[in-house]
Amino acid sequence: MELLASASFPKFFPSLRCLKLVYDEQETQTIINEPKDFISQWKMPVLESLSLTNYVPSRIQASPTRVQFKFSAVHEISPTWNLTPFSSLLGAFVSLRILEIALDGVYEPTHRDGPPAVLRCLEKLVLKVIAGTEEISGGILDSFETPNVKEVKFHFCSGEDYLSLLEIGQLNNIFPADRI
Known about the structure:
Elements: H1 2-6, E1 18-22, E2 49-53, E3 66-72, E4 81-82, H2 84-92, E5 98-104, E6 110-111, E7 117-118, E8 124-130, H3 134-142, E9 144-145, E10 151-156, H4 163-167
């Protein structure tokens, strides 16, 4: 990351439509939430698709319509993983129509300060959890609201743990009571 941050290549990408960033450094054992990260300097006016793995930038100067996040067990999340940067970043994507989140072996609970992001343009939500717990998926779901979502897909690969999501009301953000 330091190499990219200090590199002298362009910070304006007028034609960039798709960006994929994978942070997979084995020595690092946390999800990266850097307040001074290099990607926040990039201007990407026509970015349509953004894919981030084990990385949550402080901000992005773009408004993609499709965003994918993947957090894996290679990067152990601390018990107090703060979802505030994640929620803030999502809230900045005013044109976001498709959101895909994959959690692979992530077990720790999370917390968020402040209100959830409201994703008014979101039409499709995909949440995939492989060997995780309801605390992490519930924390992710609580970090945003989707008042106009038309399609929701959940893939839970660890059995009965996720049936309790319905019981504890974590899906109220996805399916607002006034729209059922």
